[in-house]
Amino acid sequence: MGNEDIICSEWIRERAKHPSFGEGKDYEDMQRMWNESATTYSDSQYSAISDDIVSALLSEGIVNKDSTILDIGCGTGSFALRFSPHVSKVIGSDSSPKMLERLMDNASERNVNNIEPLLSDCLSIPSDVVCDVAFSSLCPPMNDPESLLSMEAHSKRYCIYVSSANIGNGIEGEVWKALGCDYSYSGYDTTYPFEYLRSIGKDAKLRFFTQRNQSIIPIEECVNRYLRLVSKYRGMNGDMEHTIRDVIASHAKDGNIDLSREMRMGMLIWEV
Known about the structure:
It is a single chain. The chain is α/β, with parallel strands linked by helices. The chain has a single domain, classed as Rossmann fold, CATH 3.40.50.150. Helices cover 39% and strands 22% of the residues. The strands form 2 sheets. The protein has a 7-stranded mixed β-sheet with strand order 3-2-1-4-5-10-6, with helices on both faces. The protein is globular and about 55 Å long. The relative contact order is 0.15. The mean pLDDT is 94.
């Protein structure tokens, strides 16, 4: 087995630990989840990192005022809206109509007129959509070799892929373990696509960005947060709620839960 095969096997094995795979969610289920979360989705956990990523790309000349960008899996516009003041055009592609609707509402509120929405999943983008930069951030469907390489067909110059690279799973990991599930998000670590690209001869560059988030919330608010999270993937019952409450209570101090942590994201860049 070659190095490429070894990397892909490990990548696939780790990616399969994501709750959506463990709970057997199909494409329609995930579409429904994305549409339902469109009105409440926030990038606050990564906002400083997102600012730093855009600043880095501008300062290095990878993105400039003449650039056109295809933002694959753009969501509500975390990056599209950040890029828009500094580039010629952004095409925001997403498979969720609700996400695109909120993107354009956000653009309208900011008087942004150089963002163009495109309703498409990541592997169905029309072949004539080609920009200077193909960009994707925190888009789970892009996290495999085929989807990653599909970015090249839509780029004249650079491909940029951003994903979470957090170390450990925190309380969420404990919650799933208490429910009998070995779930994690480690398969979405940017190191896997980086090592894959290098194994097939791509001169990919990887760098990491961090952001420290301070968050201390009451126990009941924390319990409700994790009840909502788990219920996105499976039906809730009394025993499960009791288990989740026990996990949260074990972290309590003076009636509160400290959810502060350092967030970490990786950015991959390679030339087409």
